[in-house]
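Exercise 7. Predict the structure of DUF805 domain-containing protein from Parashewanella spongiae.
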Amino acid sequence: MLLNSLFCIHGRDTSLRFVAISASCFFVILLWMLIFGSNASVFIPAVTAGIVLLLSGYRRVRDAQKPQWWSVTLLVPWLALSVSISSDTLFSIWLSMLIFGCIATLLLAFPKSLSVGRFSSGYQGPATKMHGAQSTSTKRVEPSLNAQFDSGDSEQAPNYWPNANESTDALLDREPMQQDSMKSLFSDMIESSPINRKTLLFIVITLLSLTVLGLLGQSMWGDHELDTVSTAEQAVIPTSEPEVTVSFSDGFSMGLSDKKLSMTWLGDEGEAQTLWTLADAIGDSNCQVLRFNNGTQYRTIKVERLSDSSTKAWFTPLDTKAILKDVARRNKASLCSYTFSLKGSQADLSKEPLFRAYIE
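Solution. The predicted structure, encoded as tokens:
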């Protein structure tokens, strides 16, 4: 009966039952969000619970004899809450929609009941009548024992057995009647006792408060965890090592930082500019490769003229070891139409431990 009454259109709900159903609907959608997160799956409970909420509001306005369109106002904050949760909006937005939904529920529960008749668990309607019809249709019928008596007792049987049948039916029907009376008494106690109402409202408010606090804590802790992760990521980002430089007797130098090799020399005077880049292959073609006297050559990544009129070339880290070995072993190297003498270069490189590790 309880499940049927949730989807009933022609019945009536008391204010207490309406508040309980509304709170349960909001609790279900918030619990779903807490478990599965803010995504489109929230529409699964939102549609079902929204129908239950709308029908309960419709029965509430029938009970208070108010315009039926009042029940539709419940769907406005409900749909807004569902959309805001599914789109993962700010916590303050869907919390505001939740507050508006609670206000709409309380306003609709405020008018007093104008219905006449008995309510069962806060409900009055066809579902109660169907339940009563099913309980009354289960009356027990005992077989007759008239065949056990002879014809001499046939005149006394009509006078005796009707009374016996009446007492038997009364005894058999006494237990269902007592059960129905206990159910009615229990329902009346729920409806009439102010202590139980306060207790029920306290439980509903407590559940909603705990859910909201849980979502708020999850939001705050989630942001804190994200900040912690981002801070940790920033902490583990290695800082670039300072460039270690070795100067050679022919007036050029080589620098090494994070396995990236560079070569610097005093070139032509002029404005700072890019002379060559491997990315777009635009610039001075003489700066494309570093060429040694044995014919070995290595591509440059970028060559620039700096503000102090010096020229600097960068090489890929994959060629660092090979270039340094050729610098230590060869006699000459050329780059950007400049020729450099490598006499004594091995001794110069061996002075710096970082470079010495590449040529040994």
